[in-house]
Queue: 3 jobs
Job 1
Amino acid sequence: MVHVREMLEVDIEAVSAIRVRGWQAAYAGIVPQSYLDAMTVEGDAGQRRQSFSQPRRTSRDLVALGDRGPVGWICFGPCRSDMPDMRRVGETYALYVSPDLIGQGIGRRLLGEAHAQMKGQGFEASALWVLCDNQRARRFYERAGYQADGAAQDDVYGEITLTELRYQRVL
């Protein structure tokens, strides 16, 4: 059983561990292994502390707490697109669950709470970006009502360029 609450500064190390381990598990065979191997919890936590303390931060962070502390994390906020038709759209920037707990409903719980909060903030839809080759994540988001909307962007990881697809759903 997990419950969801706002992320606190004390959660940063645990969230960074979830994110780094999540990347290393989810993107193995997609993102270059050298890139994944170079990721550290300490480096991620340092960046997270810096962004978490920004006074004008518009993103929200939630954690799923289990009996061992944080076991999942979601970050969301206004859509980062500068297109006028995206002003009423929220965006899920990141969603990670401890790799050993994937499939237990934690991601669905976090996403549901983020959707409720986005709707409460006046957003009419939610968007997110997912690596084209990450079939597991694409299936997860499609089951949650998201559909690819035709937008794509490329990201460079080490020496490899990977394509991300944008998904959207009505809230």
Note: The chain has one domain: 3-128.
Job 2
Amino acid sequence: MRRQTVTKAQVFEAADQFVDMGLNPTQNAVIRRVGGSFSTVGRFLEEWRRERRAANENPAVAAPDQLLGAAKNFAEELWSAALDLAAAKFREDQKRLEAEQAALDEDRVDMLNLVRDMENAAAVQESRIFTLDQSHRDAMSNVSVLKDKLAKAQERASVAEARLAEANSRIGELLENVGLAHQRNTDLLQSLLSLRHGRNSPSSRRGNA
């Protein structure tokens, strides 16, 4: 496998980083960091050590106290400005988060109101279904009574054919009305079941939460 090409700048930078961490910049350590071959890294490390020794033997002239003081003051002012900027950003973010939280609270209240409205509507539908069911049972009872009367009328007089035809017509209309009432009852039952299913679905439960 071909070794990765490494530059002198990369080796110098890696060696400085190891020294800053209090570690010895050995060839193996630098190769693990930036790659390269032993010969190339070794040559660059030797040059780095020579330059470092020369720098230690000829230290830079110390800056005047006035210059150091000015640099310190500048650093303190810069740090203070950075803190003020960070504090302002924090206050801005806090206001934004508070506004978002207020909006979420309003949405939650609206959702709760919507759920209550749906529950009230479901209760009304249940009442209507009960009433229609009772009407259906009453209608079926009336049909039974009418059939009994018709049978007795047929037994009592065969001369009442005209009246019997009229009664049969009335019974047909009543049966049609009963069928319509039964269909409406079925539709309302299906609507209620769909509404209850929607309330019990995961999205409804998350909304209730």
Note: The chain has six helices and no strands.
Job 3
Amino acid sequence: MTVHYHKGDLPADIDLGPRIAVDTETLGLSLVRDALCVVQLSSGDGDAHVVQMDRSSYDCPNLKRVLSDAGSVKILHFARFDVAMIQRYLGVTLAPVFCTKIASKLCRTYTDRHGLKDVTRELVGVDMNKQQQSSDWGAETLSQAQLEYAASDVLHLHILQDRLTAMLEREGRMEIAQACFDFLPTRAALDLAGWPETDIFAHS
């Protein structure tokens, strides 16, 4: 694994291909209170690009270009949160998207354990280290441990997509999964607009 650490933006000439694993690190889990600090990406080649945001401006045209490319599928785990964060801070709507957490919930109905660590352990055979999950992502310079943690969150998403897609197709659930993925930008917009928990489809 090689981790490429970029402050502010990606290099202008970067090409991550047709499938890009994406994750974010933030100061917390509130879309209203907590800032976007880091975006990490991988093309599935074993390398990861970790971009530390300039939170004074969020001026990162190369990153925005990669994320907004409609010709590449963005693979995320619990995409609802990351799509909303990127939408809020970078003004980019991620699409098309494949969410490995939604996929897991639709095809791994024999378990209620759908966290990235659990899904990766079962389907890839890798036991991820989550020790840096709650560290200070707003630090001026990220530590090596933080960089390795951020990278690990995107390194296995391509193979997870492949294996979950096979399971979804086997169970005849790929079409409904795709409909869920397509709805994610709208779900994120509802979260940002103040309807995070309300089921707008409910009778009352």
Note: Helices lie at 61-68, 79-90, 100-107, 116-124, 144-155, 157-170, 174-193.
